[in-house]
Write a structure and sequence with these properties.
The protein contains 23 helices and 18 strands. The protein is of the alpha+beta class. Among the domains are: 180 residues, Acyl-CoA dehydrogenase/oxidase, N-terminal domain (Butyryl-Coa Dehydrogenase, subunit A, domain 1), CATH 1.10.540.10; 113 residues, Butyryl-CoA Dehydrogenase, subunit A, domain 2 (Beta Barrel); 136 residues, Butyryl-CoA Dehydrogenase, subunit A, domain 3, CATH 1.20.140.10. It has a 4-stranded mixed sheet. The protein has a 4-stranded mixed sheet with strand order 9-12-13-16. Helix 7 runs parallel beside helix 9. InterPro entries: Acyl-CoA_Oxase/DH_mid-dom, Acyl-CoA_Oxase/DH_mid-dom_sf, AcylCo_DH-like_C, AcylCo_DH/oxidase_C, AcylCoA_DH/ox_N, AcylCoA_DH/ox_N_sf, AcylCoA_DH/oxidase_NM_dom_sf, Mycobact_Acyl-CoA_DH. Keywords: FAD, Flavoprotein, Oxidoreductase. One of its GO terms (molecular function) is oxidoreductase activity. Its EC number is 1.-.-.-.
Length: 732
């Protein structure tokens, strides 16, 4: 897996970033109005080889890949560069592919502008064209032919429009033309150009979104209201955190589409449509929220944010209604619509988990195929209720309980990518991993902070699969503010006495130990007087009462009345629990629910094939395809955001909230999509019968808790805002 651009790509980005910072500054963007075209900028870009990026070397170009062009377009979007750049990039490649001529030389040198018409002029002789007001020529489909239409200077007229871009409504059927191609290869090349444009505009909008969010975040740090920066208010910071995650996801979904085209993946065509739809939608939401952050000043022309607001709409809408892209994705996913995919060239980024990951996933499938009897499969449940002690011990014997652990502690030092594949296999099998996850977290904390006695008495049993552990963080009065814990640990001879209660101690009814956060010093600020312990749940004074949820799972409230714990069962120093707890929370924050989401979408697809709607399977209905496509987009986005978190941790990249992004995005979309797919397949989805209907029913209930446990979405939004956007702390 690789999310890092090559040295050449980084140099390309830096080169164009420096140039555009100077020559597409906001003062230059404003100066280009009302035409929306900057001839000097255009000439400079040509000198840097911008328009030759995608032109093959034998036609006088640089011959770079589509990812390289996408990197360039991110900078174009960030700086709102004036002119039809995406359209000229694909037009130049088309000219080079179909009929290299003098016009191509003029385009590459910046002397001429050539744009592209998106619709067949045999059907739509009059069309809006990006850059039409400054274009010397337009490439278009005319029936079965691909033609180059000359645009006389007399019809190139600037028209007032939303964002002062050089769009124009042109009567293309009347223009002087030359035929570039009249065979299938030419029509294919033209279709490929349209798909390439979608990816280039997606990249530009991702760059635009990120910059709008950056401007808003900087302003939120400077502007004060009621005596403090407005960025401290969650009503300001949390929407920006959401949109920062959305913008990152859009960029990486664009990259993934390019990668999957290179790898000839079956869903690559749909990914193009989904990437374009998502980035268009995200840009619209990002600029609206960014402008709102500026308040009334955002409405004035003195502030630059309005320029981003208008360009976010002007650039993509030349294609038409973005909702059509979801319809297109639906047809490509579920109606077998074929698409001519562009030749993307070399792609350096990679989303593949690797051969070791595939082998581990295969081993997991084989283990469960051999181990799970019909009775065990009937017992399976996504919560602690699905735990089976016998299977747990067999997993330990097979080295599949904690594969990422060191070999001396029963693991096999499986890398993070392999563990990601293991978790996906686990989801596909449908066997609960809750007890394994919490026990593994507790075991890791013991390995890092535990005494030798604790390792000998508890960790060895964890390794052998003899015991399971639960987590004792939340309390009835504290909720997500775990550091406000009031459960007390007081000195009792050489050990400790614990008194208090914990809420949502899931799995405590089957667990042997609980990882517990306690207050050991009530006279200091709440973050400083805490200590962590491993507490045996079979100890005198422990009582466990069930709390049932509508998710068909049991959690617990646990009470501790004079429970004695040895000092050797303490993790870390006395009153040093904050650091220990932070490590435990960081492990929880790095996850996500993309695997559950993918399983849910597959169940919805299966049910839509079974349900008859107006005499045919529901999955053939275009409205149903749109909703399934939207959920698929959310799955893909959740995956790439989570992959970035895993990659960044593996590469020891700076922690700027990547883990919280993965958890936040996936849990929120899981909640939204579970409700929508329940609606789509109603009333069948109301049933709890075995099969896809019952599973969708379960997903709806399961999803309700995902935005709460492991830290609420609000907690994760604050973490993203502070770490990723540099906003001030929004909570005491």
């Amino acid at each position: 897996m690789n999310f890092e651009l090559s040295e050449d790509q980084q140099l390309l980005r830096e080169t164009f970033a420096r140039y555009l910072n100077e020559h597409s500054s906001m003062s230059r963007v404003r100066a280009a109005q009302p035409s929306g075209f900057d001839p000097a900028l255009w000439s400079g870009l040509a000198e840097l080889g911008a328009f030759s990026l995608r032109v093959p070397e034998d036609a006088g170009g640089v011959g770079l890949g589509l990812l390289d062009a996408a990197v360039f377009m991110e900078e174009v979007g960030r700086t709102l560069a004036s002119g039809p750049i995406a359209e000229t990039l694909v037009a130049a490649r088309l000219l080079a592919t179909l009929a290299p001529n003098a016009m191509l030389d003029r385009v590459l040198s910046g002397e001429a502008v050539v744009s592209i018409a998106f619709h067949n002029i045999a059907d739509e002789p009059v069309q809006w064209v990006a850059g039409g007001a400054v274009a010397d020529a337009v490439i278009a489909r005319d029936g079965d032919r691909v033609v180059l239409i000359q645009i006389p200077a007399s019809v190139r007229k600037t028209e007032a429009n939303l964002a002062s871009t050089p769009i124009a409504e042109l009567r293309l059927a009347d223009g002087e033309r030359s035929v570039l191609s009249k065979d299938e290869s030419g029509r294919k090349a033209f279709a490929q150009a349209i798909e390439e444009w979608k990816l280039l505009i997606s990249a530009a909008l991702a760059g635009l979104s990120r910059e709008a969010i950056r401007l808003a975040s900087a302003y939120a740090c400077e502007r004060s209201a009621f005596g403090q920066p407005i960025g401290t208010y969650q009503a300001i910071s949390h929407p920006l955190a959401d949109l920062s995650t959305d913008a990152d996801g859009g960029k990486f979904l664009t990259w993934k589409a390019i990668r999957d085209i290179a790898d000839s993946k079956a869903g690559a065509g749909a990914e193009i449509s989904l990437a374009a739809w998502w980035n268009i939608d995200t840009a619209g939401r990002a600029v609206a929220q960014a402008l709102h952050t500026f308040g009334g000043y955002g409405l004035t022309t003195e502030y630059d944010i309005h320029l981003y607001n208008l360009r976010a709409k002007a650039w993509p809408l030349i294609l038409g209604d973005p909702a059509r892209l979801l319809e297109e994705a639906g047809r490509r996913l579920y109606s077998g619509e074929q698409v001519a995919l562009p030749d993307v060239g070399a792609v350096t980024i990679d989303f593949d988990l690797g051969a070791e990951a595939r082998e581990l996933a295969k081993e997991v499938h084989a283990f469960f195929e051999k181990t799970l009897t019909p009775e065990l499969r009937a017992k399976a449940h996504y919560s602690f209720d699905g735990h089976d002690a016998g299977v747990h011990r067999k997993l330990a014997e097979a080295g599949l309980l904690f594969p990422s652990w060191p070999k001396e502690w029963g693991g096999r030092q499986a890398p993070p990518y392999a563990m990601n594949a293991l978790h996906q296999a686990w989801e596909e099998v449908g066997w609960s991993s809750h007890a394994i996850s919490t026990t593994g977290l507790v075991g890791t904390m013991i390995r890092l902070f535990g005494s030798d006695e604790l390792k000998s008495e508890v960790l060895t049993k964890i390794v052998s699969g003899e015991v399971v552990c639960s987590l004792g963080y939340s309390e009835p009065s504290c909720g997500s503010d775990v550091f406000a814990a009031q459960t007390r640990a007081t000195r009792d001879g050489e050990g400790w006495r614990i008194d208090g209660s914990k809420m949502f101690t899931s799995g405590a009814n089957i667990a042997d130990y609980v990882l517990m956060l306690t207050r050991t010093n009530p006279d200091v600020p709440k973050h400083k007087g805490l200590t962590m312990f491993i507490v045996p749940l079979k100890s005198p004074g422990v009582s466990i009462q069930p709390v049932f949820t509508f998710q068909d799972e049991r959690t617990n409230i646990t009470y501790y009345d004079g429970v004695r714990v040895k000092d050797s069962y303490r993790l870390g120093p006395v009153d040093g629990g904050t650091k220990v707890m932070a490590g435990a929370l960081e492990m929880e924050h790095g996850g996500g629910f993309s695997k559950s989401m993918r399983h849910m979408v597959h169940a919805a697809e299966e049910l839509c094939r079974e349900i008859q709607y107006r005499g045919r399977p529901l999955i053939e209905d275009s409205a149903a395809q749109v909703r399934l496509a939207r959920s698929t987009a959310h799955v893909l986005l959740s995956e790439v955001i989570a992959y970035r978190a895993v990659w960044a941790a593996t590469q020891r990249q700076p922690n700027v909230g990547y883990g919280p992004m993965a958890k936040l995005f996936s849990s929120e979309k899981f909640l939204k999509d579970s409700a929508d797919l329940l609606n789509l397949t109603a009333p069948y989805s109301l049933s709890k019968r075995t099969g896809p209907a019952g599973f969708l029913n379960q997903c709806y209930r399961h999803a309700q808790g995902t935005t709460i446990y492991g830290g609420t979405s609000e907690v994760h939004r604050s973490m993203i805002a502070e770490r990723g956007l540099g906003l001030p702390r929004s909570r005491a």
